[in-house]
Amino acid sequence: MTIQKKYDGILFDLDGTLLNTLGIYTHIMNELLKKNNFPTHTSKKYRKFIGNGAQNFIAQCLPQNHRKEETIMQIGKEFHLNYQNNYTTHSEVYTGILELLETLQSTGKPIALLSNKSHELTCKCAEHFFPTIKFKQIIGQSDSYKKPDPKGALAIANTLKLPLDKLVLVGDTEVDIVTAQNADIDSIAVTWGFRDEEELKIVAPKYILSETNQLKNYLL
Ligand SMILES: O=C(O)COP(=O)(O)O
């Protein structure tokens, strides 16, 4: 696909785009499900459950007849606590991503993080997995921000002081692409994360890429 324009600022999704967290979601959730005598899932199944925040993730992991708010909140609390204690494990930066971020940084291109992982965990993961990267802004999920609400993307645009048509959001789920569309910025969908090309095509991202090394042609 030909690239129509280069961008002055980049908003990255975290899970499934920069960081492969499928292992930690699978590990923690299966432990919690076992503890509560609920059936566990394969990582292939978990892949589809991630992307729309912790509460939504937990609801989908539970058996249909146990999705009461009370149960979701209780398992959610334990999930968050376990994640906080183990966020450095069972997760890895996708090949080539750290080098790409370092190159973007060295060229002075501003980069930011916009995630539906809790704000606290998003910041911790950024610091641990990308210690050399100074993200201009990090926004994780909170009462104020949750993708696909465009508020987070617009707050980043404001911080970067860049017009919306100079920005692009790179993400791996339909929630990311719809967030970009809601904010009126371009999107690049990537297929190395938690969704397949067929699923991403439905929401019509501007570009779809299947390998991390293709990103530099669009971002640098
Ligand atoms: O917790 C999630 O829903 C995943 O977070 P993400 O927005 O970084 O993909």
Automatic annotation (TrEMBL):
This is phosphoglycolate phosphatase. Signal peptide: none annotated. NCBIfam families: HAD-SF-IA-v1 (TIGR01549). Belongs to the HAD-like hydrolase superfamily. CbbY/CbbZ/Gph/YieH family. Pathway: Organic acid metabolism; glycolate biosynthesis; glycolate from 2-phosphoglycolate: step 1/1. The lineage of its organism: Bacteria, Pseudomonadati, Bacteroidota, Flavobacteriia, Flavobacteriales. One of its GO terms (molecular function) is hydrolase activity. It catalyses: 2-phosphoglycolate + H2O = glycolate + phosphate. Keywords: Hydrolase. It is an enzyme of class 3 (hydrolase). Its EC number is 3.1.3.18. It comes from Flavobacterium sediminilitoris. The keyword Glycoprotein does not apply. InterPro entries: HAD-like_hydrolase_sf, HAD-like_sf, HAD-SF_hydro_IA, HAD_2, HAD_sf, PGP-like_dom2.
